[in-house]
UniProtKB/TrEMBL annotation:
One of its GO terms (biological process) is glutamine biosynthetic process. Keywords: ATP-binding, Cytoplasm, Ligase, Nucleotide-binding. This is Glutamine synthetase. The lineage of its organism: Eukaryota, Metazoa, Chordata, Craniata, Vertebrata. It catalyses: L-glutamate + NH4(+) + ATP = L-glutamine + ADP + phosphate + H(+). Residues 114-368 form the GS catalytic domain. InterPro entries: Gln_synt_N, Gln_synt_N_sf, Gln_synth/guanido_kin_cat_dom, Gln_synth_cat_dom, Gln_synth_gly_rich_site, Gln_synth_N_conserv_site, Glutamine_Synthetase. One of its GO terms (cellular component) is cytoplasm. It comes from the Eukaryota.
Length: 368
């Protein structure tokens, strides 16, 4: 199989002729949702008669859940409830992307709609002014599933020169990274940075800080944009937490967390109190930090390659081999935020931010 898709080689000059046609008052709105795998994203587009001013102007819609691993064929209509609106960086203004929650026929949240509960938790805890920042790592693959631009038979030179590297022998696929960054900015996704990762063809971008429920919304839309940009280039982005076995880094989704108290004078003691609670709930968190109950992270959290062991909880200042890291600057300032390094690249950000919020701020004493 060719490593780059045929679609990506269609004539883009011809495409441009049509893309620049005026569209009158009409507005294209692309509805985006998480499918029944809890990892996959789906989307479909409809025309509205006018540009929506806000999310309340975008009507509910529906789709066939039996084709997305989301329902039985006999009762397959699912509701799409618009929750967050972005600009469409592909068809441009006035067109929109809209992230949706999925409800079943009885209007209860679908199994993989973890936003619903997360939103309730975040509303309950609004007074804490919870901020999150997530570091999304991912790996570029050719259509054949082989890491993008790696030798067909064999491996690139060992890890070392690639992290934050520059040059054709260090940075594989930067076009995608730069286009995705611009697409996020245009869309209104709160992307805050990017860097090449330790393994060649592996990259990271950061989203945040975002308050409460917005973290999950922005991360999911950033992932949609990533897959969509990769489609244009004819390659794939995988969020598999350990795409290449052996002496190659895995991919995580480090989650940085703070409350207003943690950010203020004397914040470190609130950070330490939160870490203490996290330590008592390690197993519960591990089973929530990837879509397969910890099985995916099992391959990644080995204690090697800048990870902690999946079996142990640890925390430390500037320690990248710990479950929780307090950044050096935060240790020095005595306030700021902490980083949970355990979530896998393919985690659901609603589950991750939700359980961190609950453990640190809702539960008194519980162990697992
Ligand atoms: P690392 O050194 O772990 O690679 P990065 O620079 O990649 O750190 O990511 C830092 C993340 O921390 C960013 O997503 C940023 O939005 C987030 N962040 C910064 N300050 C805060 C804060 N006060 N609360 C929560 N998240 C924060
Ligand atoms: Mn980072
Ligand atoms: Mn990283
Ligand atoms: Mn990090």
């Amino acid at each position: 199989m060719a490593s780059v898709s045929s679609s990506s080689r269609l004539n883009k000059v011809v495409r441009q002729q049509y893309m620049s046609l005026p569209q009158g008052q009409k507005c294209q709105v692309t509805y985006i949702w998480v499918d029944g795998t809890g990892e996959g994203l789906r989307n479909k587009t409809r025309t509205l008669d006018a540009e929506p001013a806000g999310i309340e102007d975008i009507p509910e819609w529906n789709f066939d859940g039996s084709s997305t691993y989301q329902s039985e064929g006999s009762n397959s209509d699912m509701y799409l409830v618009p929750v967050s609106m972005f600009r469409d960086p592909f068809t441009l203004d006035p067109n929109k992307l809209v992230l949706c929650e999925v409800l079943k026929y009885n209007r209860l949240p679908a199994e993989t709609n973890h936003r619903h509960r997360c939103n309730e938790v975040m509303k309950t805890l609004a007074e804490y002014s919870l901020w999150f920042g997530m570091e999304q790592e991912y790996t570029l693959l050719g259509l054949d599933g082989h890491p993008f631009s790696w030798p067909t038979n064999g491996f690139p030179a060992p890890q070392g020169p690639y992290y934050c590297g520059v040059g054709a022998n260090c940075a594989y696929g930067r076009d995608i990274v730069e286009c995705h960054y611009k697409a996020c900015l245009y869309a209104g996704v709160k992307i805050s940075g990017t860097n090449a990762e330790v393994m060649p063809s592996q990259w990271e971008y950061q989203v945040g800080p975002c308050e409460g429920i917005h973290m999950g919304d922005h991360l999911w839309v950033s992932r949609f944009l990533l897959h969509r940009v990769c489609e244009d280039f004819g390659v794939l982005a995988t969020l598999d937490p350990k795409p290449v076995k052996g002496n190659w880094n895995g991919a995580g989704c480090h989650t940085n967390v703070s409350t207003r108290q943690m950010r203020e004078e004397g914040g470190l003691q609130h950070i330490e109190a939160a870490i203490e609670k996290l330590g008592k709930n390690h197993k519960k968190h591990i089973s929530t930090y990837d879509p397969h109950n910890g099985q995916d992270n099992m391959r990644r959290l080995t204690g090697l390659h800048e990870t902690s062991s999946i079996h142990d909880f640890s925390a430390g200042v500037a320690n990248r081999g710990a479950s929780i890291r307090i950044p050096r600057q935060v240790g020095k300032d005595g306030k700021g935020y902490f980083e949970d390094r355990r979530p896998a690249a393919n985690c659901d950000p609603y589950l991750v931010t939700g359980i961190i919020a609950e453990t640190c701020l809702l539960e008194s004493e519980e162990s697992s």
